[in-house]
Design goal:
single chain; 547 residues; alpha+beta; Topoisomerase II, domain 5; Gyrase A, domain 2; 4-stranded mixed beta sheet; 4-stranded antiparallel beta sheet; 22 strands; disordered N terminus
């Protein structure tokens, strides 16, 4: 294509620009690129590229990488990790490196991203049990390499996350394996563990909430009652939720560390704000000290299982004023803006955490109903065959001359079907060829040991089970409430609320800043400032005071 054929109209109309005689080749060469050999410049049809390639890339990052799905509360990498762990599960711990390798069958990205996602799941201690050095979320210490640490699914995950009979499956990226579209999670997992991700053009930040409060809210919703949900962090501290806005865009929460006064010269920070580590907290304190905003002598980090940062004050410094200054000038107080963005129906949606809970509870109710229907079908099949077996043995059909002398399987099937015809009112469904073939497989030892009374007890037990399942299906909402309440009784004690809800008073930074500057005035020339040291001294002040 010569340069004479290149016009601005071709750039402005991407549809027209695609109508070329030569398509883009598989090796990436695009004949639509214009090369001017005279000045070595390459002109791309940028508008068409952005409308196709960049939009595809953005959609992929949003749907397949960064934003959790509302159905199970998981990002694709997390879902694939949990699926791989279920395939490996035998009750024992597996090396993280082994889990990562198995996950790569489903996740078309590097092992580093899988390892990091698995470490984050393990550190939250809900779905994954850990063994070895998994780092310290309080200090920011990283976990050991995958070949040294081990993991397995928690009992909670086994109870709540899996059921292959109600799972929708799709092929993995290379078409060799099946993976779940979403896992049938019977709990608002997304609200419990929280989520954070940055995609192309949008981000998601869902704060974690308390396990027991989530269940209480779910039960309240099922009963038609009002409910509210507020964040709860494993790091503890205090939180002001007056502007939480149900976790939607535009809301904000303030979080403060828990600072205790050991004596007039020593403070202890025993709980830190969510999203911070003791290392970043101490760094912010040191910067405030160097800026002259607070007066401290030194800071020690004695954190182990729990946070413990010791702040030593300078002699003559007010401990109460220093606490206020720590909140005003350091990461002892932070503000977080939640942004509840989730994938729903293959599109990103911005909703509130209450909407997430309602959707998850409705989904749990539906999944429980499907499970009951599957169990009912299985029990009905057991009852059907037990009834068949009883008549087959009691009526001694296996000894019929017509059965024993049958020349083919089809002839034997027809003979048995005819013998069972008069008993059809005792069966819960029509008799199929597969049912009769199963009768062929009954061994003589079982026939000889057949006990009528025991068979009747078994049939009665099946009928009771069917009645029980039908009762649960008829009152499915009550059954779902019972499911949540049993979940709370089994696991709730391990998840008390850690973060205290409190309304914060606004701290005026100027009132708590240390007066470490001297203010001077030159009355004749009309100047005032802190560098006029040869002029008249006015007073001590801080760098943020108004003059």
């Amino acid at each position: 294509m010569s340069e004479d054929t290149f016009t601005p109209d071709a750039i402005d109309d991407p549809e027209e620009s695609r109508e070329e005689t030569q398509p883009v080749r598989k090796d990436g060469f695009d004949p639509r690129i214009i090369v001017d050999t005279s000045n070595d410049t390459i002109r791309h049809q940028l508008r068409g590229m952005f409308q196709s390639w960049f939009l595809d890339y953005a959609s992929y990052v949003i749907l397949e990488r960064a934003v959790p799905n509302i159905e199970d509360g998981l990002k694709p990498v997390q879902r694939r990790i949990l699926h791989a762990m279920k395939l490996l599960d035998d009750g024992r711990f597996n090396k993280v490196a082994n889990i990562v390798g198995h996950t790569m069958q489903f996740h078309p990205h590097g092992d580093a991203s899988i390892y990091e996602a698995l470490v984050q799941l393990g550190q939250k201690e809900l779905l994954v049990e850990t063994q070895g050095n998994w780092g310290n979320t309080l200090t920011g210490a990283s976990a050991a390499a995958g070949r040294y640490i081990e993991a397995r699914l928690s009992q909670f995950a086994l109870d709540v996350v899996y059921n292959p009979k109600v799972t929708d499956w799709t092929l993995s990226y290379d078409g060799r394996k099946k993976e779940p579209v979403t896992l049938p999670v019977k709990f608002p997992l997304l609200l419990s563990k929280g989520a954070e991700g940055i995609a192309v053009g949008l981000s998601s930040k869902i704060l974690p909430h308390n396990f027991n409060e989530i269940i209480d809210a779910a039960v309240a919703y099922l009963r038609g009652e009002e409910f509210t949900l507020y964040p709860d962090f494993y790091t503890g501290g205090f939180i002001d939720v007056s502007r939480y806005n149900d976790g939607e865009r535009g809301g904000v929460v303030k979080i403060r560390a828990k600072i205790e006064k050991i004596d007039n010269k020593t403070l202890a920070i025993t709980e830190i704000p969510y999203g911070k580590t003791t290392a970043t907290l101490i760094e912010s304190i040191v910067k405030a000290q160097e800026a002259g905003k607070i007066k401290i002598r030194s800071v020690d980090d004695n954190t182990g299982e729990h946070a413990n940062v010791i702040v030593y004050l300078q002699p003559g410094t007010s401990s109460d004023k220093t606490i206020d200054a720590l909140y005003a000038f350091t990461d002892c107080e932070v503000s977080i803006s939640p942004n509840c963005c989730v994938i729903s129906e293959n599109k990103p949606h911005f909703i509130g955490v209450s909407d997430v809970l309602r959707h998850n509870v409705d989904s749990t109710r539906t999944i429980l109903g499907k499970e009951l229907q599957i169990q009912l079908g299985e029990v009905r099949e057991q009852l059907h065959f037990a009834s068949l077996e009883r008549i087959f043995i009691e009526e001694r059909i296996y000894k019929d001359k017509g059965y024993e002398e049958s020349e083919s399987r089809a002839q034997a099937i027809e003979h048995i079907r005819g013998r069972l015809e008069k008993f059809k009112d005792k069966f819960i469904r029509e008799i199929t060829d597969d049912d009769i073939i199963r009768l062929f497989e009954i061994k003589m030892g079982r026939i000889l040991k057949f006990n009528v009374d025991k068979c009747e007890e078994q049939i009665a037990a099946f009928n009771d089970r069917i009645s029980n399942l039908n009762s649960k299906l008829e009152r499915l909402t009550d059954y779902t409430i019972e499911w949540y309440e049993n979940l709370k009784r089994k696991y709730g004690d391990a998840y008390p609320r850690m973060t205290v809800l409190r309304n914060f008073d606004n701290i005026q930074a100027a009132s708590v800043a240390e007066a470490n500057e001297k203010l001077y005035i030159n009355r004749e020339e009309g100047f005032i400032g802190t560098s006029l040291k040869k002029d008249e001294f006015l007073c001590n002040c801080s760098s943020i005071d108004d003059v």
